[in-house]
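User: Need the bound-state model for KG4:
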Amino acid sequence: MKFLGIETSCDESAAAVVSKQPDGSFQVNSNVISSQADLHALYGGVVPELAAREHLKNLPLVFKKALEDAKVSIQDIDAIAVTQGPGLKGCLLIGCDFARGISDSSGVPLKGVNHIEAHVLSGLLVHKLNFPFLSLVVSGGHTELSQVNGIGDYTLLAKTGDDAAGEAFDKSATLLGLPYPGGVELSKLASSVSKSRFKLPIGLKGKDGFSFSGFKTAVSLLVQNNLTEETKPEIAWAVEEGIVSALLEKIERASSNTGLKEIVVSGGVAANKRLRERLTNHKFLKFYPVPLEFCTDNAAMIAAAAMLRFEAGLNDTLSSEVFPRWPIYKSAANAS
Ligand code: KG4
Ligand code: ZN
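Assistant: Bound-state model below.
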């Protein structure tokens, strides 16, 4: 079985070909990503209209390269899987229209995929995991901790009531004068020191649910009162420590509430080195790391999620709508 994945929910135009082997493991035949990060950095954040226009330009090239890299033609593909939500409406429409065009001209069937569900299942691209397990999706727009009971069966354990963890990284980075998206830059700066004289609060400590709005205010005050060239790396260290500690506190809480120890972390912030180290060396959690190329937005996870759902007997035909807000606990039929 071989699926083509297409992803355009935010500022990455991506296409990938993924196969499922007879032993059940995945093989990623190609994984092509064209990032618009440099363009949006000029504006300090993603500009939706520009992102949609860039997808229109980049997607045909990315699609062609994904087939070339995988050494296949469209007729070798069993289904085209495309992100139908959540994400930026104009961007989702470009991806779905493009996928529909290929499907109409080739006769290859179409499947609509939930981007967050694809992040949740991305660990299965590389690991054999038994259900249930814990999943944390941490990106620029999402911070959600779930129990994965099976394919298409998720229990929400905690989510953010305000900012996402990636946003907390990016906004703190902006306060420190680092370029957007600042997560990577802030982390790099933080790694130049090994401790900090500053300490930042964990939002909703001891409770279910994430919160980063008070954290953001605390970073802003810290910057106003203490920022110098000398303290800058230490402030970055404290920001990273604060966000990573908040994520770990909620994972540990979820683990003791559910009795589950296996955890998969995905989304852009899952690329964070300190978070990965803490989880790898954790005293009771068993961490299943997702390779960096499948942590940040990519189309291999979209193809894999569609295959897993297809094998589980779930029917995901693509309707004409897109769903900018689509919790994974709702089917596409109930998404809007
Ligand atoms: O999943 P993603 O690529 O895009 C979406 O938001 O859907 O996640 C992007 C987010 C940004 O906020 C970025 O700053 C953050 O992930 N990020 C990081 C790191 N790499 C990416 N945050 C902290 N440390 C990193 N190494
Ligand atoms: Zn994402």
